[in-house]
Design goal:
This protein is about 40% helix and about 20% strand. With about 300 residues, it is α/β, with parallel strands linked by helices. It holds the Pfam family PALP.
């Protein structure tokens, strides 16, 4: 599959307390494969093709942007896709908009109990799945592996070509995007991650492991915030919905409710609290995921 036409744009948001905040509009990259999802898949798809695989098998929760993206890849390329969903099938009936869209795009959905899902990386669990589905190229949850990092790293060069910055901020689910940005920064400038999960301290070790696998080194120029998850993954408290609605009115840009909305709410709070020195330029990355609004009763008005 050819790379989508890049439409990355830098939108000036505002200046607060002497800190300039810009938004990298990576959600404009492709209408169906926006932002970090395409970047993570790019080199994995090349590897799957090199190995002769025509089936992609991957994992995700009920609102997974990654499952939606892989399903879209299947429809666009003609490859078979299998999505292993966390939780028993009856708990997901009727299918939410994310899973319904994935199935409409041709993805075969397989539901497994949460205990087995947590063991997805174990060889025997993977072997059982592949025996059931047939030969497949296996993508981890969120698409985060060593091959996901080069695509995310390319974003750094694209942003640098558009503007000078001191900090690159991004939301984190599995940590692959932040790990990729770290390899692209190569020790220059700072990276700031905002965990979308309530209990996400494990991400620090996972991010170090990913960069070690991809580049043979770890990095010190980054920080992970775990205090802006807004109640946990796929939770949308009223104050976050209000923030996203007000942001849309102010900037005419829609944020997603799971990742970028939380990240920007946290980022603005840190600015107000004096976390950044005056004169700092922060570029926040809009990673897409707008399809998730279907599971939250629609976009804020």
């Amino acid at each position: 599959m050819n790379s989508p036409t890049h439409q990355l744009a830098i939108s000036p948001l505002e200046e607060r307390r002497g800190v300039r905040v810009l938004l990298a509009r990576d959600e404009l990259t492709h209408p169906e494969l926006p932002g970090n999802k395409w970047r993570k898949l790019k080199y994995n798809l090349r590897e799957a093709d090199r190995l002769g695989h025509n089936t992609l098998l991957t994992f995700g929760g009920a609102y997974s942007n990654h499952l939606a993206a892989v399903a879209a890849v299947g429809r666009l390329t003609g490859c078979r896709t299998v999505g292993v969903v966390r939780g028993e099938e009856l708990a997901h009936r009727p299918l939410n908009p994310t899973l319904a869209r994935a199935r409409a795009d041709g993805m075969e959905l397989r539901f497994i109990d949460r205990a087995t899902y947590r063991r997805q990386h174990e060889p025997e669990v993977l072997a059982d799945l592949v025996r059931e589905t047939g030969p497949a190229y296996v993508l981890p949850e969120g698409g985060s592996n060593a091959l996901a990092l080069p695509g995310c790293a390319e974003l750094v060069a694209e942003v640098r070509a558009l503007t000078d910055f001191d900090v690159l901020a991004v939301s984190c689910g599995t940590g692959g995007t932040l790990a990729g940005l770290l390899t692209g920064l190569a020790g220059q400038q700072q990276a700031l991650g905002f965990a979308a999960l309530q209990s996400a301290d494990f991400l620090r070790a996972d991010i170090d492991q990913l960069t070690q696998q991809a580049t043979g080194r770890t990095y010190a120029n980054w920080e992970l915030r775990t205090d802006y998850a807004a109640g946990g993954y796929a939770r949308l408290p009223p104050q976050l919905r209000q923030f996203i609605g007000e942001f849309r009115h102010r900037h005419s840009i829609l944020l997603d409710p799971i990742y970028t909305g939380k990240m920007l709410a946290g980022l603005f709070d840190l600015v107000e609290k004096g976390h950044f020195t005056r004169g700092t330029t922060v570029v926040a990355v809009h990673t897409g995921g707008l399809q998730a609004w279907g599971g939250f009763g629609g976009e804020p008005v």
